[in-house]
Amino acid sequence: MPQLNPSPWMLIWLSSWIIFLLTIPPLVLMFKPSNAPTTDRLLNPLNPWSWPWP
C-alpha cells in the first residue's frame, strides 16, 4: 500500500484550521440570547400548590 505524501495534506489541514479559527470566534462573540433573563420570577415566586383551576 503506497504512502501518501503528507505535504499537500498538511497544507489543507492547516488552512482549514486557520479558516475555522478566523470565522467561528466572531460568530460566538456576537451571539446574543433571544430572551433576556427577567426578575419577575424572583419578585413574585409562584406557589407550587396554587393551581389555576378550582
UniProtKB/TrEMBL annotation:
This is ATP synthase complex subunit 8. It comes from the Eukaryota. It is found in: Mitochondrion membrane. Keywords: ATP synthesis, CF(0), Hydrogen ion transport, Ion transport, Membrane, Mitochondrion, Transmembrane, Transmembrane helix, Transport. GO terms for biological process: proton motive force-driven ATP synthesis. GO terms for molecular function: proton transmembrane transporter activity. The keyword Mitochondrion applies. InterPro entries: ATP8_metazoa. The gene is ATP8. GO terms for cellular component: mitochondrial membrane; proton-transporting ATP synthase complex. Pfam families: ATP-synt_8. It comes from Cynoglossus zanzibarensis (Zanzibar tonguesole). It is a single-pass membrane protein. Belongs to the ATPase protein 8 family. The keyword Membrane applies. The chain crosses the membrane at residues 12-31.
